[in-house]
Structure formats: structure tokens, C-alpha cells
Amino acid sequence: MKLPFHIIQVLKLQHNNNKGMSSKECLHRFTDNLFWDVDTSQLSMDEHPSYIIHRVLEHGQMDDWRLIYRYYGLDKIVAE
Q1: Is the CB of residue 45 less than 8 Å from the CB of residue 23?
Q2: Which residues of 5-20 are buried (b: 16+ CB within 10 A; e: fewer)?
């Protein structure tokens, strides 16, 4: 999936702010209703990257996009 240029530019400005964030911390920061159909205590940013990235790209708000960019980086998002 190719991200629009303006989205990439905004994300680049935010990159590296939360590099040390754990999987659970990141999941806790997502919009509350983003994972309405799953038990988030069973999700892991490291074990379920494809599911999380696709859900954020399809249903997330801009803050959610920033979180996955900070956690995964652009190369991982594009690869998934």
C-alpha cells in the first residue's frame, strides 16, 4: 500500500519520538475503538504487525498512524 506524500511528510516529523516504547505501551495509546473486535491484551506489536498495521491504515486516526510509524518505521509499514 502506498501512503500519500503528505502523510509520509507528517510521519517523518514525528519519527523517533517514542522509539523506546514497549508493545503494550504503544497498544494502550491507540484510539479506543480501533480494535473493537479483539482482546487487546492478546495483541502484540511484535507478533501481529501485519494485523495492526492494516487495521490502523484502514480505520485509524492520524495519531494512530504516527504510533505505528514510530514503532515500526516506514519500511516495515510499506512491507506489510
Answers
A1: yes
A2: eeeeeebeeeeeebee
> 30-45 burial, b if ≥16 CB within 10 A, otherwise e?
beeebbeeeeeeebeb
| Residues 6 or more apart in contact with residue 22 via CB below 8 angstroms | none
Sign, CA torsion 31/13/19/55: positive
- Residue 76 pLDDT more than 50? yes
Closest CA to 33 of 59, 69, 66: 59
| Domain spans, the chain | 5-32+41-79
Whole-prediction pTM: 0.74
In contact, 49 and 72? CB cutoff 8 Å: yes
